[in-house]
Design brief:
With 564 residues, the chain is α/β, with parallel strands linked by helices. It folds into two domains: 60 residues, no CATH class; 472 residues, no CATH class. The strands form two sheets. An eight-stranded mixed β-sheet has the order 4-3-2-5-9-8-10-6. Strands 1-7 form a two-stranded antiparallel sheet. Helix 9 links the parallel strand 2 and strand 3. Helix 11 runs antiparallel to helix 13.
Length: 564
Amino acid sequence: MSATQRPRRSVSACQCPCPYRFQVMCCLALISTGAITASWSQIQQFTWQGSALLDSARIPLPDTEEGGKDIEPDFPPDILDEEAATDFGNGSAEEQAAVRSSSRSSSEEVPDGPDADPRSQSEEDQEHAGVFALDEVEDESHGTTLAKKVRHDDGKAPTTLLGIYQELCRMGLRSPGAIRLAAPELRDAVVRLYQPLVERQPPAAFHPERMVTPKSPNCKDPAWKHILDGTRRAVPRALVDVTTGMGGGPELDLLELRLWEINASLGDQPKPAIKDVYVISESAYGLRGDQKPLHFSRQRERFKSFLPQVEHILLDNCTKYSSAISKMRRETNKGKKKGGTMFSAESIQRICVLKTLIQRRPEIPDDALLIFSDLDEVPSAQAIQMLRLCKTKSSAKDGPWIQAHYPLPYNLRVGCKARKKTELHYQGVFTTMGFLRRKKGLALRYNMRRNLIVPRAGIHLTYVGSRADVDYKLLHHGESGQVLATKATATGKRLNFCEIDEKTLASMEQLLRDNPVSVARAWERGKSSVLRKEPAGELSKCQVPWALLTHPERYPHFWGRAAK
């Protein structure tokens, strides 16, 4: 059937009062808003006819010269809501104490979860955990696969960003805003398209011998006098690093930078009796309820130096989290526009991680330093060293001490410049394992008037990585749910995916490197700022991780450079 042929007039999925020439668009509009329901196969009748592109059968968007207006969040996607620490509901104090004193056993790990503890699986089982082949994407009502629809003409899934955008065009998703309100099964297919790009191998090798360790700490540093008493500890604290989950974007790169930065915190200082613990959690679903691969499980060879110290937590073992995801996938478009249950899912995710850590690791001493933050909030080796080697004041208690991060919204070409205190990013905390056990919970944000602030605590890396990485991050981000604005010039119109060719995509990627604010904050009309060709200022003074500073060839997109 050619792209110019009209679909059949018999449409049982929708009784629309519109004239025939508007009927297809009318039906799809009603489906997309939840006014009527239709199975995937019925929607396919409108949007798919082999590999043909039926322009008249795409979900309509407001008519503009830009091919439809994207649905933008009401506020920047990097703003998070404040979560209050919540009791885990572990039972009585006696029951909780029994759990903490029990030996680590996979049979005791969140027993109400649907999946087995990954530690009881073979390496081969873990290797394939969370792999969602396109052939396995099924329509829940008819059991038919979408694989044939999410393919290039050669029958293979796309391996380039241009190929992904061409597939989105074939899928009837003309713009980023259409992705945001698409049906769950369709969003699942979109997420899978990005898998080869977000799991790509780095373009250059990692060199541990380039490690830059911090100087021996000055426990009498005036900037720390509100937390430290000026004396050194006889033995450094043990350390537990807890991130809030692998949430999309260049998460493998960010995890690598984070682990190596923490690893450098002691340098040649004495080591504690217990090795550092890195808590890495992930789920087969993103924070908008979309199915996604378990990227860490699939790429753990990249982190082989740290695997003996990794506490891997599969979030799908937590019943409340699984229930929140199921509820999210059933939400109407109205619920999705308002945020729906995604903020609840984020909170439940964090509760699950902390609860499981308490249950699994009773041997970690109460005075162990605990880091709790998002993956893109990379703590500074210098700040970690100060808290591990220096004694804290009794008045500082166990915190939580708020992390003050240097904000790096885009690539390193933004440069390092002095920031006012009001411009810093205050999120994430340092505390102790004992505080977590006593309070049974942690928040990412605390009242800055009542809690002490750790100076130069780290760096917040926001819109970093390739365009595909940032697309993937925004797809999973609670307040976004779509990809970057499709602009080739700072002041130009937004293109629909069907208009993008190789030359246009090259311009779009260059724009993200040279003038990222015009793309990342496209809803602020006229926002534009061209970056210098090279970073200005001494980057190390802005808590840029040593691994990033010494490996520009491995992380070219972080440096605002095209990958070779």
